[in-house]
Amino acid sequence: MNTSRVGSAPYLLNIPGGKLQGQPLAFSHRGFAPDGEENTLKAFHAAYDLGFRYLETDVHTSRDGVLMVFHDETLQRLTGAAGHIADLSAAEIRELRVAGEPIPTFEELLLEFPLAHFNVDVKDQPSAQRLAAVIERHGAHDRVLVASFLGRRRISTQRLLSRPVATSPGVLGVAAATMLGKLVRLPHRGLGVFAALQVPESHGKFPVVTKSFVRHAHEAGIQVHVWVVNDAIGMHRLLDLGVDGIMSDRADILATVMRERGHWPQQAPAN
């Protein structure tokens, strides 16, 4: 039995005509890592135990082509080691520790949490091909949203898949959507076919998420997810605007806010 397919269902549920189905989504950003163990199995278990079924993560590819769960290009901040993650083999990476925890592969993550959905930020070009291969091997198309700062990485992943996955645009697509979304309904086809716009609430002093932005995205059938929001007041403000998802480092606070609003425990989409 391919255990990673257990509980498989559409990542996001959009209904034609711009109406959105289901509760707003709560994303645990790199798991829940109050002691610094971000993107480790310990952090994801902590989030999962709080009730999260949408887990945000990042992937890099090792020197020998293994898809590793890790945010930074370099190793220093998280492991104290010198150099780049791409310069080490998977075996060498597994010897390193993040706050005492080993660095997992993305395949391990899929298998460890068969009922979870994953928001995956593709951090380098080789990871586009590797991510597509893992998704295909485990039939995880309905469990993954592919995002990347550079749109070409997302496009590369999409082209290698036998069926579609949910996606969010890169920085250029987000910038275009942000400018247009304040004024008019977003031209869904013109920007690309995306399930969600994943954006910060603001860029410097420039507000990104406004009521008109959310309304115009919804009219185009696109969800709005906001990152990274770590305070309850901000979470409530965004949910009042009608956003469809929030990513947070403070999974504990986000779970409390969702519970107060009647959106907890989180319900994964039905098959």
Write up what this structure looks like.
Helices cover 34% and strands 17% of the residues. It contains eleven helices and eleven strands. The protein has helices at residues 41-50, 76-79, 90-94, 106-112, 125-138, 151-159, 171-181, 188-191, 211-219, 232-241, 251-260, and strands at residues 25-29, 54-61, 67-69, 117-122, 144-147, 166-167, 196-200, 202-203, 206-207, 223-227, 245-248. The strands form two sheets. Strands 1, 2, 3, 4, 5, 6, 7, 10 and 11 form a nine-stranded mixed sheet that branches. A two-stranded antiparallel sheet has the order 8-9. Residues 1-9 and 13-20 have low confidence and may be disordered.
SSE blueprint and pairings:
Blueprint (H helix, E strand, L loop, with lengths): L24 E5 L11 H10 L3 E8 L5 E3 L6 H4 L10 H5 L11 H7 L4 E6 L2 H14 L5 E4 L3 H9 L6 E2 L3 H11 L6 H4 L4 E5 L1 E2 L2 E2 L3 H9 L3 E5 L4 H10 L3 E4 L2 H10 L11
Parallel strand pairs: 1-2, 1-11, 2-4, 4-5, 5-6, 7-10, 10-11
Antiparallel strand pairs: 2-3, 8-9
Helix pairs in contact: 5-6, 7-9
